[in-house]
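pasting for ref
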Amino acid sequence: MIQTVTTGTSVPARYRDDLRNARFPMPIRIPDSLPATEVLEGENIFVMTEYRAMHQDIRPLKVLLLNLMPTKIVTETQIMRKLSNTPLQIEVSLLQTATHDAKNVSEQHLDAFYTTFDAIRHQHFDGMIITGAPVELLDFEDVDYWDELCRIMAWSTTNVHSTLHICWGAQAGIYYHYGIPKFELPEKLSGVFEHEVVKPSSPLVRGFNDRFQAPHSRYTEVHADDIEAHPSLELIATSAEAGVYLAKSTDSRHFFVFGHPEYDVETLLLEYERDLGRGLPVSVPAHYFPDDDPAQAPHATWRAHAQLLYTNWLNYYVYQTTPYDLAKIGAEGPAREGEASQAQGEAQASARLGEAQTGAASTAQGAALNAPQPARSEAPAPRNPYLRPANEDDDGYDPYSDRREEPPLFEPDP
C-alpha cells in the first residue's frame, strides 16, 4: 500500500522539506535481482526498485552490511527484513572481506552484489552492520581476515556515523575498540532466553517490555563486569542465563548485540541438526522447542523486539543524528565526545553524592545501634546489579527525547 509521509516535530528540520508530500511504500532499496528481493516480496513486503527510488526527492540512508557469515544469502535476507520495516528509505551496500574465500556462496553472487573495502574506503555511510561469523573459538588475531577487519573498523570511526555489531562481530568490535576480551563457555550456548532491560531510559530499547526474549548461538561470551567498568561503555540489556545481550558506547557510535535477533524461526533448528550431523556434543536449544522437545515445531517469540531494536537504532542513532551531507560524517566526533564527558561528569557527581549519603546513613545507623530492633522480614528477591533508574537521563545525545521541553500547544489568553 502506498503511504503518504507527513512531517511533524519528530522529524529533523533538515529533512522536513525533502519529506513533505513525498510518497513511498517501503524503505529498503536493494538491487532488483538480489535473491532477497524475491523472498521479501513473497512475504508481502514491498521492495522498492532502484528505478522508483531514484525518482524520489529524498536522500536515502546509506547502510553498509559487512557480511561475515558463510551463508551470505540467508544472512543478508534476514537483516534486510529487519531494515525494511521502517518509514525510512535505506540504500543497502553489501561488503565482503577480500582476504577470505567464501565457500558457501557462488562467485557469481559475490561479483554481482558484493564489493570490497578498497572500492568503498573513500565513501561515507550513515550506518554499518557487522555480522557474526563461525570463528569464535579462534583467537581474534588467528582469524584469517582479522587485519582487514581491523582496517574496516578503524575506517568506520571516521566514515560511518553509527555501527551495529552482531554476535561474533560484537565481540570483535568491543575487543578492537575497547579491549574487552571474550571467554570460552563450557559448552555452546544455544536457545531463546529471557532478558532484562537494565537501562530503560535508553532510546535503543524504547518500547521494549521490561523482560523480552532473544536468540543466542555462540561458544564464547563477554563479561558484564568488564563492560560496566569501562568508562566509554554501558550495558543496556542482560540475561541471567545468557549474559550480556545489548551494550553500546556512551558516544552512541558503536552498538553491540551479542545474540541473533535477526534469526528466522527455524535457524536454531537448522544449526542444531547441522551440529548433530557433524557429531558435535551439543544440547537441545534451550526454551526454543515447546516442552524442549525437538520433535515439536518451534515458535518465534522474539520477532517484535528484534524489529524494534533495528527500528530504534535506525531512527534514534542514525536518521535523527546523521548529517544530511555525507561528507560531514566523522566531523561530529568531538561534539559527541564532549557530550559523553559531560554525562560522565554528571555520573561522577552522582557517585560522590551517593558516597556522602552512604556516610550519613552509616552515622545514623551507628547512633541507632542501641535502639529496639524490629522483627526481620524476608529478604527481597535478588535484584539485577546492573539495573539503572527508569528516569535516568538518556546521555543527552538525543535532542528528540520524550523528556524535552515542548512549546505550548495554544497561545495563552491575553
